[in-house]
Amino acid sequence: MKTALLGGLSPRNFLRDYWQKKPLLVRGALPDFQGLLTRSELIDLACRDDAQSRLITQQNGKWQVRHGPFALRSFSRLPKKQWTLLVQDINHFLPAARELLLKFNFIPHSRLDDLMVSYAPSEGGVGPHFDSYDVFLLQGMGRRVWQISAQRDKRLVEDAPVKILRDFRMEQEWVLEPGDMLYLPPGYAHNGVAKDDCMTYSIGFRAPAHQELATQFLVYLQDNAAIRGMYRDPDITLQSRPGHIGSPMVDQAGAALDKIKWNRMDVEHFMGTYLTEPKPHIFFVPPSDPLPEKKFVYEIKENGLQLDLKSRMLYRKKTIFLNGDSYAPGATARRSLEKLADRLILPTAKHFNDEALALCYQWYLYGYIEIASQPGGIDA
User: Does this model's pTM top 0.90?
Assistant: First the structure.
């Protein structure tokens, strides 16, 4: 089905012709879109301990970056131009941000990273750079000039606190107004500069490096592999050089390491836990006065249920993954929970069986899910 969000393209055609291949400019992707929060609300978030934020300034050709949380008074001391505030994971604080991200669910949830929002006064930006991931740049209030380039020269300015391209050669340029959107595939050089006070909503998608996957999989094996045996050398011989590592020791260590095995199921389980593992700064708050289980079940049957804004839920085959943990419910319960993973919010749980309801109550006590409510303001 064609959609204005993709400039009249169907999601299928967008994935075939543009995703990770070439940029796409969409005028009026979200008509009348002015943003989800105000400048002052974004600044308030940047002052919170549980938010990740950066303040990037440029003065006399030199860049500076500071990391939050910030004191509110910091923003009254800033110049009128040439600075940018960026706040990550807006979808962890604002229900309307989750609703925005759901418009992009033609991309699997397993690929989604977060919604970042940036505010900049006139001439503010973060300099010409490239990202290693796909991103949709949706313009909120104000206007921003975007310059892009398919250049292969990725050399960076040395000793700069942010990754600035040394030799950016602009090939295309547009001014984005509220509701306009620019999609950029990984590695595409771009430079965004505010023409006036503006806010940009960046829908970013995670693309882990193979080195990161390998490192994290080794951590997974450390926790899940059981290698029996212990080093033994009853037939050790006298060495004339005691500092030398003998071949029998190396051979025995190699034989022990050869016992490390994994299969497709291990990779599947690893990916589920890895992709749903919360970021290090994220924590969940259990309900301070939890409902009894019967009352909770009644409420979610009548009013529905939703994932906590910070929760990540995926599934594969017979396993449900939620916030780094795995569950293997029966087929009926699994089908119900898969719908929650797909939609993030369900209007009712009347079709849930007892097993699914029991799991939901457990997750409710952990702070992973909650009784559905109407989208509101920023979570406290």
Answer: yes
